[in-house]
């Protein structure tokens, strides 16, 4: 199992659900242009200044650089409505492969939302949708075109571009999550989930 499991108490806020050169920069304005999201399930905000996705009642998928082994506090917010209700993340699992910027956060109790469905088909030329919160309270989405597929996915901008705060955000093709956003530059760069589905299944069962 290529992961390091870290115990700890992480505060998690569950909010009203909305039906949905490289630079790694978690604190910035978020997706530029694009549009406000209104239909894709599973996208969440991960403090501080990152995004992620709920893939099952008790598991959140995000980027590894969004979390820290020593952290004792984080927020995972579903939707964009403020609430004082808090959940707890009881552990996190970090992928040990340097080429896999992935982390899984395990919730102490289930959340009742629609989950991001994982997919494994992405090809050069596909149009993808990248979701991110930026460093605010509005979930946005940008359309991009896939230009390379390997261990990672690179995509060129169509109607918007990613910025800091979008790291960890889900990347969808044909309604299924195929990637996790981790960096931007001339292109937008994502982890290719097809390569790491076995790791995700070993940890989360998804």
UniProtKB/TrEMBL annotation:
EC code(s) of this entry: 3.4.21.-
Pfam families named among the record's database cross-references: Trypsin
Enzyme class: hydrolase
Any Gene Ontology biological process: proteolysis
Keywords carried by this UniProt record: Disulfide bond, Hydrolase, Protease, Serine protease, Signal
Molecular function per GO: serine-type endopeptidase activity
Gene3D superfamilies in UniProt: Trypsin-like serine proteases (2.40.10.10)
PROSITE patterns according to UniProt: TRYPSIN_DOM
Peptidase S1 domain sequence ranges: 31-205
Family recorded in the similarity comment: Belongs to the peptidase S1B family.
Record-given protein name: Serine protease
Taxonomic lineage from the root: Bacteria, Bacillati, Actinomycetota, Actinomycetes, Kitasatosporales
């Amino acid at each position: 199992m290529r992961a390091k499991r870290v115990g700890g108490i992480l505060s998690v806020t569950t909010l009203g659900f909305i039906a949905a050169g490289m630079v790694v920069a978690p604190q910035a304005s978020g997706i530029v242009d694009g549009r406000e999201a209104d239909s894709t399930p599973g996208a969440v905000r991960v403090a501080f200044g990152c995004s992620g996705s709920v893939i099952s009642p008790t598991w959140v998928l995000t980027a590894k650089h969004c979390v820290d082994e020593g952290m004792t506090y984080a927020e995972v917010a579903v939707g964009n409505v403020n609430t004082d209700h808090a959940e707890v993340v009881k552990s996190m699992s970090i992928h040990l492969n340097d080429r896999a910027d992935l982390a899984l956060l395990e919730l102490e109790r289930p959340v009742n939302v629609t989950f991001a469905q994982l997919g494994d088909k992405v090809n050069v030329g596909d149009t993808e949708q990248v979701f991110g919160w930026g460093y605010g309270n509005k979930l946005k989405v940008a359309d991009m075109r896939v230009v390379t597929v390997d261990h990672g996915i690179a995509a060129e901008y169509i109607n918007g571009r990613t910025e800091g705060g979008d790291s960890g955000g889900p990347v969808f093709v044909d309604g299924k999550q195929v990637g996790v956003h981790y960096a931007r530059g001339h292109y937008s760069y994502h982890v290719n989930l097809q390569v790491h589905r076995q790791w995700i299944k070993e940890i989360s069962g998804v």
